[in-house]
Design a protein that fits this description.
Elements: H1 4-12, H2 18-22, H3 36-66, H4 72-104
Amino acid sequence: MTMPAISAITAALPTTSTSALSGLESPDATAPSATSGDFASMLTKGLNAVETTQDKADGLAVKAATGDLTDIHDYTIAATQASLVTELATTLRTKGVDAFNQIMGMQD
């Protein structure tokens, strides 16, 4: 069973190829990238997927509490998915903040 939120977050992570790195050494490397808006949209898409997964788990929790849920396993799976996706998003945030702090701490 694939989790759509994790798929969206991992799809949002950029992959680095040697062709992408070859442009870094050129004198035109200071020009703004055409993909500058893509990271923001991928991040938004990933966070929306996290929210959707959590909303699904919340909805199933209400159904379980009111007795409208016929299979409790659906709620258990959704709650576990929401927990894992939230943990993944938190880990990515922490790694991003750590990387930012490390870059800001570099001396010229």
